[in-house]
Automatic annotation (TrEMBL), chains A, B:
PROSITE patterns: POLYPRENYL_SYNTHASE_1, POLYPRENYL_SYNTHASE_2
GO MF annotation terms: metal ion binding; prenyltransferase activity
Organism: Pseudarthrobacter equi
Keywords: Magnesium, Metal-binding, Transferase
Protein name, as recorded: Geranylgeranyl diphosphate synthase, type I
InterPro entries the record matches: Isoprenoid_synthase_dom_sf (IPR008949), Polyprenyl_synt (IPR000092), Polyprenyl_synt_CS (IPR033749)
Keyword Transmembrane: no
Domain of life of the source: Bacteria
GO biological process: isoprenoid biosynthetic process
Length: 364, 364
């Protein structure tokens, strides 16, 4: 077996184990919930559906963080940690889609839309949109609790006061803080000083995404395996710029991505009013008239395809797209350099390099 | 010192300790959050504000469950458990108020209204209502995570697989399931069979309220102190009917309560479209025309004070109010009988009797 095959097999085994763990976990909870009332099945179904798909980026970062710190291949603790991260991500997506009024997720309806559709199909009373939103708030809360239950199931290594527990707690609090800064910038950005907009957008990226998607999951895996502080610092030096590149790529895809590949409508970020680094750079570098146009359309429910086209043109012509691509390259390079400096076995190092490549150059 | 004084002092000490624990906990998290950005202060402020008030019913049930099972007065574990329960309750209230579109909480604005008002006061862009809702979803998520952090802080006695942990997990899942059944009944109730409405409303009460507000907190305290299974069964026999009486009283106050005492607008439950036992009994016992009137107004945003008056009249004249008061009396008596049958020291038994009296006869 070549190194590349070994890596593929081991990674596939882990992903399958996480999927199995999630199925087992949700099946046991399904039993409890059905005992209360079969009416709750759609809530459980919406959670199962969401944890079935996805790239498993966070679980994989956790796994290779664990392996890099000397953890055994396929050990139970890291599988459970991966499942807890996936459940947390599902909870975050459910609430995120309500907040951003996103009707689609991975090409299908988002959870609040599923429940609105259920309401309509059943001919229920009152407002279907409100019902969908309320049901999705509760589905997200339940999923958040499940994520915690799974995390506790890790046992001793994730007990009160353990380093893994502290990382998990910090990860949750920081991503919620970052999401608040994100929605705050949508409404406060237009009246705040434009000079600070790019740095505010970078801070949002760091907390809502980079720390959450790559830095903390990698550190969590490392901490579970008893990584030294030195190794954890090295992990951060790699994962933080990688996460920043990851989110900048996400921002580019949110404006320029192909709906068939991303599973999201074209220009979705613009309709949601996201003031990303990409947008902040455009506002800074475009003509006053063009910036005013972006400001007037961003977050507008009436934003149409023509507006999306025009904003895309401004972002390209102002040089903001190119500047963002340069930033992605720089962050990516910083990540690769930090990775090469890490004292890791060949297998986890190669795995992390592959993950980094997929993250920076992805199209969905 | 008389027994009554001892009880008052011990209870006051515990409530003060929980308040101190909450302040310490939130102050430490405030430090982390301010480090990310002072912009997050209003989120932390909204959580602090919410855990400052309230009746501390759940924390007190937990405390006397602990004491009844032989736990020491004022021990750290039960104080931390009380703080975790209060944080969980605050998280539930934040999301509940979004779901129910409640603009007030304890006489002040609810969290989503606070953020809408902040938006308006600052002259921010886009929609203040949407911003308020999004911020409150995130504030509730953060508070839910905090509740878990606090619970884990209990340590060994609440570790993975412990009985206290299982109760805490079940409590969270059941209250979320109960809340979903509650919003489902609002929309599906009008098209479901009327004959089953009262029993559906009773099932909702059990899961969203009775188990959550009294049964599980009492059992949690007991489990932390190492209660026998017999004692836990006895606790349930007392706390479950008590919790049912508690919620039925809440339902009566939601329609007939004095806004000055409840801190909620008159007839708030009717505007929210809650299909409580009280309402289900009225729909069952009123004339077809009166039932049709209730059905047409329940949950309507246009419900006015005249409608509230008329629905109150129908609930009274149909005998539903009296029937609910009889139920409250019956559940209360069942709780008292079960309490007397418990093998408890005089102090916790008296304390639980007092809590039960306050719960069943309260006016707010």
């Amino acid at each position: 077996m070549t190194g590349a095959e070994q890596l593929r097999n081991e990674q596939a085994d882990f992903v399958a184990s996480v999927a199995g763990e999630l199925t087992g976990f949700l099946t046991s909870r399904q039993g409890i919930m059905s005992g209360i009332s079969p009416d709750i099945d759609p809530i459980m179904g919406s959670i199962s559906n969401l944890v079935t798909g996805g790239k498993r980026l966070r679980a994989l970062m956790c796994y290779w963080g664990w392996r890099g710190a000397g953890g055994d291949a396929g050990a139970a603790e890291v599988v459970t940690a991966g499942a807890a991260l996936e459940l947390f991500q599902a909870a975050a997506l459910i609430h995120d889609d309500i907040i951003d009024r996103s009707d689609t997720r991975r090409g299908g309806p988002s959870v609040h839309r599923r429940f609105s559709q259920l309401h309509e199909a059943q001919g229920w009373a009152l407002d279907s949109g409100r019902f969908g939103q309320a049901a999705a708030i509760l589905a997200g809360d339940l999923c958040l609790s499940f994520s915690e239950e799974a995390f506790t199931d890790i046992g001793e290594r994730a007990a009160s006061g353990s380093r893994a527990r502290l990382i998990f707690n910090l990860m949750r609090a920081e991503v919620m803080a970052g999401q608040y800064l994100d929605i705050l910038e949508e409404v406060a950005g237009p009246v705040r000083d434009r000079a600070g907009a790019v740095s505010r957008a970078q801070s949002i990226i760091r907390f809502k995404s980079a720390k959450y998607s790559t830095e903390h999951p990698l550190a969590l895996g490392g901490a579970l395996a008893g990584a030294t502080n030195d190794l954890l610092r090295g992990y951060s030096a790699f994962a933080l710029p990688l996460g920043e590149a990851f989110q900048l790529r996400d921002d580019v895809l949110g404006v320029f991505g192909d709906p068939l590949t991303t599973g999201k409508p074209a220009g979705d970020d613009l309709r949601e009013g996201k003031r990303t680094v990409l947008v902040a750079l455009a506002l800074d570098q475009a003509s006053p008239a063009e910036s005013a146009f972006i400001d007037s359309r961003l977050g507008s429910p009436e934003l149409d395809d023509g507006d999306v086209q025009e904003i895309r043109r401004i972002i390209e012509d102002s040089g903001a797209l190119q500047a963002t691509e340069v930033l992605i390259g720089e962050y990516g390079n910083a990540a690769y350099e930090a990775l090469e400096a890490l004292q890791l076995d060949e297998l986890p190092k190669t795995a992390l390099r592959r993950l980094a490549e997929a993250t920076v150059s992805r199209a969905s």
